[in-house]
Amino acid sequence: MRYATMNRLIRLPIAVWLVLFVLLFSAKLAWSEPYKSDAGPHEVGSFLLELHDEERDREVPIKVYVPKGTADARPVVIVSHGLGGSRENLSYLGERWASYGYVCVHLQHLGSDETVWRDVPARDRLKAMRRAAMTPQVAIDRANDVPYVLDKLVGMNQENGSRLQGKLDMNKVAIAGHSFGAWSAMAAGGMTVGGKRGKHYSDERIRCMIPLSPPVVASERLYETTYGTLNIPALFMTGTLDTSVINNTEAKDRLIPYATMRGASEEGVPKYQINFNGADHMTFGGPHRGSKLLRKADLETEPIFHSLIQQSTTAFLDCYLLGDRKAKQWLNDGGFIDAVGEHGDVAVDAK
């Protein structure tokens, strides 16, 4: 039967073969093209909210980016800033994702935000940042900020007169973060915090994560314990110059969470990674502003990195929050790798 089928295929008219070739070639071209490389169809609005967690007596300021003109409930992306940052960080991602219909909620984590360094003499700022990074309660507060904000969003989504009433699809939630924010994302995604007897801060409402410049535990013997429990689809990003003056992290160390997490080939979950050639730690924060003292990257190349970050993260969200088949094809069937090209190395472990 199989031979008969092959014979019939071989005898197909040339015109039919040409049609099949064109269809296959067109599909390959579609996967190889940039993915939503321009801003989306929605105008984007934003507003600030000052939230107060009464149980912890803790302020959690947020900034919300919303797509205008949408009538249905939209998927949600929680965004966590790095050490010394604020809810204003990663705006280039919040605005881009919102233009494609996502509601993006940027958290500010007191104790590891800009207040750590803003009123400190310049000579003491690095010491203050290191102190905050090494204080366990600072990390715990970050981890607990995420479910608190998710609970508040559920309430605002149901509250009459709320600016977010009916606008949130809380069954489609992702988290993204840079540096210490990547730690927040991984904590929400199943990472074990504190070694073999550590704790988990995962939240089942979060379906996928985007850790940018993920931090790494100091002890190699804790790699498997820490990252082996990550259990939601992940898109990791780093760069060949992605070092840290806070804890002396080397660029190669940031590849460890992806390498340790179980991917689809190990009966785990889909995972992806970009290692940009020439990107440094600050690349992922967005368009460069301010001093160049901490910069190692070629700033002329960074717009290319930022475009690729926006494209790949949008495809990832479309795939794992919306179930978009074209996004999945682009990620898994070569479009992602082709788009990054010479600008970095892409690893894909997904089905």
Radius of gyration: 22 Å
Q: Mean pLDDT, as a whole number?
A: 90
* Beta-strand residue fraction: 15-25%
Strands side by side in the biggest sheet? 1-2-4-3-5-8-9-10-11
Given the structure, what is the number of helices?
A: 11
Explain what this protein looks like in three dimensions.
With 351 residues, this protein is α/β, with parallel strands linked by helices. The chain has one domain (33-349): Alpha/Beta hydrolase fold, catalytic domain (Rossmann fold, 3-Layer(aba) Sandwich). The protein is 34% helix and 22% strand. The chain contains 11 helices and 11 strands. The strands form 2 sheets. The protein has a 9-stranded mixed sheet, sandwiched between helices. Strands 6-7 form a two-stranded antiparallel ribbon. β1 (44-53) and β2 form a beta hairpin. The model is unreliable at 1-6 and 15-31 (pLDDT under 50).
Break the fold down into its secondary structure elements and pairings.
Blueprint: H1 2-10, H2 14-32, E1 44-53, E2 58-67, E3 74-80, H3 91-99, E4 103-107, H4 125-133, H5 136-158, E5 168-178, H6 180-188, E6 192-193, E7 199-200, E8 206-212, H7 223-227, E9 234-241, H8 256-260, E10 271-280, H9 302-320, H10 325-332, H11 335-340, E11 344-349
Parallel strand pairs: 3-4, 3-5, 5-8, 8-9, 9-10
Antiparallel strand pairs: 1-2, 2-4, 6-7, 10-11
